Amino acid sequence: MTQPLSDQTIALVKATVPALEAHGLDIVHEMYSRMFQNPEIRDLFNQSHHGDAGSQPRALTGAILAYASNIENLGALAPAVERIAQKHVGLQILPEHYPHVAEALLGAIKAVLGDAATDEILAAWGEAYWFLANILIAREQRVYSEQKDASGGWNGWREFRVEDVVRESSVINSFILRPVDGGAVMRHKPGQYLTFWLEIPGHPPVKRNYSISAAPNRETYRISVKREPHGLASGWLHDHAKPGTVLKVAAPAGEFFLAAHVERPVILLSGGVGLTPMVAMLETLAEGGARVPVHYVHGTHDRDTHAMRDHVRALAGGNKSITVTDFHQTPLEDEVAGQDYDVAGIITDEWLTANTPLAEADYYICGPRPFLRHAVSTLSLAGVPSDRIHYEFFGPADELLAA
Fold first, then answer.
1. What is the CA radius of gyration of the chain?
2. 402 pLDDT more than 50
3. Whose CB among 240, 349, 368, 397 lies 3.0–4.6 Å from 402's, allowing a Cys bridge?
4. What residues are labeled active site?
5. Fold of the 157-253 domain
């Protein structure tokens, strides 16, 4: 069991908050520079999120500051810790990787803060780091065990063959994946993701998370990938992953998923490629009979970028409890309201508060960061309790140690 932090450590870590506010980003850049000298550690990270303009250094800077500020009230960080542990499991981060991070972090603090980083300060941050690390290691080991023990489960990287590729829109392709070994696959929780190890010529190994866009079936997984501008992984998948291509895949992970027992109305709210976990949830609810009202609300640019529209409509047509509302921000000239889309424009605060049961429902939200931030803010201000607002976003998480 992890020993509680000492009062002296708590006081010393909190005393570094002003220095972290002033120099935190420099410390994080220095830390990554040190870690990435080791190729084994470098390859654990999504390199597209790093660099001077990368989003991950900023996210980690904010997370370290949040940890220092809440060092005596770590219960406030519990959801963040679970999210980090799930991401680490997807990336196959193991206990032996943690000492490399500790060495790089403490070395970076000393290099950037100089004489202000006294032996006492470094010792306090060392204790604080390992306190959190041991919590993460224990949680990750439990998840690894659950994955291994599950029917069709596995640890490490398992080979899957692309069985089919389906063009869903002008920017999104779906990939149907079946294990090369011919065995079953573990039932994922609708909303979870798979982590892929991609070997792209001319590049170090690339790791990416993609949400599973289908309900569990024990035989295959489906991911639906948007081709991102200049996206190394998404571009390679669109251009080179064909039926027969073999990919290395880690077991399903993620803390964002549909509740096992749905007792309240469900609102599935997505923007762009954020529809992928929502379709998995919607399929699951439709297959289970959807005994509660379900409202799927999706926003995209136009008909050409609208993925899986016919599939979603078919699911709704087969179940009277399911309602679908599609928003097209800028409909094409030949699009017809009521046929190609339901509402022109974006999903507004006014529409959301007037057309969804705020006081009764659970909200599941996924999409680009601005979309997500706006939706969560709108619902919170409208009085929806935080424990009924569930969300996932694509890209690095704003938490400590997210790789």
1. 22
2. no
3. 397
4. 98, 140
5. Elongation Factor Tu (Ef-tu); domain 3 (2.40.30)
